[in-house]
Specification:
Length: 386
């Protein structure tokens, strides 16, 4: 594998800037008065489910030569059921070429994405011909013509629809996608459709040699234990009376942490690098990043009614809960999504958001959505129920 080009260590702080402004000195202010961008519809779609224990016993136990540490990681990942366009008990994709995986990606992602997008449009009561912007987020596959073009055709979107493809941002991709869609809705006063489609089941890696202690590559074990496939979509409309208004979105990148979470394109699919230090870095930064989101609105954590935390893994959820002083009930939907679906990359935070909506919100309730990914980057959104 070719190592990525990185700036010299001494330049990193200057190039990235200071990512977390001190409390009371926000780097931006709430949007000016004008059209509100409101989430009025949500939809999701999943491939066939597979039980976590069954996929260990039927596939990954052999993949990792019965490693007890791999088994421990697999069965203590917080995942009970997940979904995949590939069932590793039936198809071993670990030695497939990247080209073969990309062909399968388009074959599977198009119908899955169409189901989620149609569900969101139906939920919003919006005709496809009314969509002004179609944004697609994915980090697990690419092709041109891409999903944005193919699905715009299949969904019956208008010929003049603006299209935006957001690729390779990882698990936090839905938040900048939401921000771009909200900006379009405010500026153009037309609805937007945002779709996240992720198929990590296509990227199972070859087992590789054990380390000097006889252990498999633990970063790969964690990735294979956590990730599942899903598509999730939201519809945003200008000045809608009911729904979740997007007040603001933010992004903050911790300097000199880019090695901690990676997603490399290799000859055998996309290979994840996932350092055990990620929860520690997140522990240092999640509270000031949250403060930076809320301060411009004169809010603090007690003003937030619900938390859509991306379930990156049990330790990450624990860290966020501890550092923000949240109650177990605040992360219950997050942990439920992790248990029932796994970590579905960019789609996951939208699944949590939908779960919170279904659980019940009241007019005026504020909600914070957050997701984490390569960089190491924390992306957040502040929403308000109308």
């Amino acid at each position: 594998m070719v190592s990525p080009v990185r700036p010299p260590a001494g330049r990193r702080l200057r190039e990235w800037g200071t990512p977390f402004p001190a409390a009371g000195t926000p780097s931006r202010w709430p949007p000016r008065d004008g059209p509100a961008a409101v989430i009025t519809g949500m939809g999701s779609a999943f491939p066939a489910p597979v039980d976590q224990r069954a996929v260990w016993d039927g596939a990954f136990s052999q993949h990792y030569n019965g490693s007890r540490i791999a088994q421990r990681i697999f069965l203590n990942s917080g995942v009970e059921t997940r979904h995949g366009v590939v069932d590793p008990r039936v198809e071993d994709v670990s030695r497939w070429s990247t080209g073969t995986r990309m062909i399968r990606y388009i074959t599977e992602a198009v119908p899955l994405g169409a189901r989620a997008a149609k569900a969101a449009l139906d939920d919003a009561g919006l005709a496809p011909t009314e969509v002004g912007l179609f944004a697609v987020v994915s980090c697990t596959g690419y092709a041109t013509p891409g999903l944005d073009i193919i699905l715009a055709r299949d969904l019956g979107l208008p010929a003049d629809v603006r299209r935006l493809l957001i690729g390779h941002m990882g698990c936090y991709g839905a938040i900048p996608g939401m921000g771009a869609a909200a900006d379009f809705v405010r500026a153009r006063r037309r609805p937007a459709l945002l779709l996240c489609v992720e198929l990590p089941s296509l990227h199972v890696q070859p087992p590789g040699p054990d380390d000097a202690r006889g252990r498999p590559d633990l970063e790969q074990v964690v990735a294979h234990a956590l990730f599942g496939d899903a598509a999730a979509a939201i519809v945003l409309r200008p000045d809608a009376d009911d729904g979740l208004e997007v007040l603001d979105t933010t992004a903050a990148t911790a300097p000199a942490t880019e090695d901690l979470m990676t997603w490399y394109v290799t000859d055998t699919g996309f290979r994840m690098g996932l350092s055990s230090k990620v929860p520690d870095v997140l522990a240092d930064h999640v509270e000031p990043a949250t403060r930076s989101l809320l301060d411009p609105f004169g809010l603090d954590r007690d003003d937030v009614r619900a938390w859509a935390v991306h379930p990156g893994g049990p330790r990450i959820v624990d860290v966020v809960q501890e550092r923000l002083g949240l109650e177990p009930a605040d992360t219950a939907v997050t942990r439920s999504v992790l248990a029932d679906r796994g970590n579905c990359s960019s789609a996951t935070v939208l699944l949590v958001l939908d779960g919170l909506r279904r659980r019940g919100l009241a007019a005026g309730d504020r909600l914070v959505a957050m997701a984490f990914g390569p960089g190491l980057t924390l992306c957040m959104a502040l929403l308000r129920d109308r």
